[in-house]
Amino acid sequence: MKLVITGALGHIGSRIIRDLPSIFPGIDILMIDDLSTQRYCSLFNLPTQTTYKFIQGDLLKLDLKSLFSGVSVVIHLAAITNATNSFDNQEQVEYVNFTTSFRVADACAATGAKMFFISSTSVYGTQKHQVDENCSPDELNPQSPYAATKLKEEAMIKKKVAEESLHGVILRLGTIFGTSPGMRFHTAINKFCWQAIMGIPITVWKTAYEQKRP
Predict the structure, then answer these.
(1) Are strands 73-76 and 114-120 parallel, antiparallel or unpaired?
(2) CA–CA distances in Å: residue 99 to residues 5, 54, 93
(3) Alpha carbon of residue 115 to chain centroid
(4) How many domains does the chain divide into?
(5) In angstroms, rounded to a whole number, what is the distance separating the alpha carbons of residues 1 and 71?
(6) Within a domain: residue 190?
(7) CA distances from 110 to 65, 84, 118, 121, 160 (A)
(8) What is the pLDDT of residues 67-93, one digit of tens each?
(9) Residue 196 belongs to some domain of the structure
(10) Strand partners, 51
């Protein structure tokens, strides 16, 4: 079995590429990353029982249909991920994230590869009551360009599943935390841990004092 992981060197990807071989022995893993965050260390000390191939490239330019030929599953992680900073570079986030997801979905539909799209619970926004993935679109309240774009990407994928030959699954991840070779520290839990260890006051937004999220 052959898998493709986009954004393979990031916080989540760098952990997945190490964990998958123990779950699916003998798989071939194609890692795609543009190295824009320079996480070279994510390529070090990979498990030896799996065949890895790494492509440094831009998903906006790569021939994805050719790369996905013969692939069973594509895990699409690649994205501009800092929700807070997305207010300052909204156009870039919207264009890059949506267009890359569209191209990945299109290539998966054309080649028969199954697509796992990594979305975010950020699409729910601030809510007065408990919500889950079964809530209606009207109940969703994304509060950043990053989250709003995730919602658009979800809609695009659902349309391709309904109208084309795409086999896709959408995963709305909660707040990620923990160590990985490509870990980042602007996620809430990792940032809290870093500040606590360094003796720095923990940063909590005033608007979030009474909020809870996964």
Answers:
(1) parallel
(2) 17, 22, 10
(3) 12
(4) 1
(5) 7
(6) no
(7) 7, 35, 20, 29, 11
(8) 999 999 999 999 987 666 667 778 899
(9) no
(10) 28
Tens of pLDDT, residues 167-201: 999 999 987 777 787 766 667 777 888 888 899 99
Give a yes or no: residue 43 inside a domain.
yes
Q: What's this model's pTM, rounded to 2 decimal places?
A: 0.86
Q: At 96, which CATH number?
A: 3.40.50.720
Q: d(Cα 101, Cα 53) in Å, to the nearest integer? A: 21
Q: Has residue 77 been placed in a domain?
A: yes
DSSP letters for 166-178 = --EEEEEE----S
Neighbours of 42 (CB within 10 A): 26
Domain limits for position 58? 2-185
Token pair for 61: 């330019």
Contact predicate 167/114, CB 8 Å: yes
